[in-house]
């Protein structure tokens, strides 16, 4: 008898109850799925917001510097 042809099924990695509990949580309605994890708000809201704010600041600073002639090479 070989080891590959075992008649016993392999035990699952997680219990079925835990899987069903996670599925119920992620399929519920109140929040969108991409915001349900622990750190999802950081990656989907905070980082893009920080990038947008910093880019607007640098664009505004560049326009101000150009209009006032600051940093011009002669």
Could you please describe the fold and organization of this structure?
The chain crosses the membrane at residues 41-64. Pfam families: COX7a. Keywords: Membrane, Mitochondrion, Mitochondrion inner membrane, Transmembrane, Transmembrane helix. The protein has helices spanning 16-26, 40-68. The chain is mainly α and 74 residues long. It has a domain at 31-68.
What's the quick description here?
With 74 residues, this protein is mainly alpha-helical.
Q: Provide the β-strand percentage band.
A: under 5%
- Mean pLDDT comes to 82
Q: How much helical structure, as a percent, in the residues?
A: 40-55%
Q: What coarse outline follows from CA principal-axis ratios?
A: elongated
SS content category = mainly alpha
**Total number of strands:** 0
Distance between the termini: 87 Å
Largest pleated sheet: none
Number of discrete helical segments: 2
List SSEs in N-to-C order.
Answer: HH
Low-confidence parts lasting 5 or more residues at pLDDT below 50? none
Report Rg.
27 Å
Task: Reconstruct the topology from this structure.
Layout: H1 16-26, H2 40-68
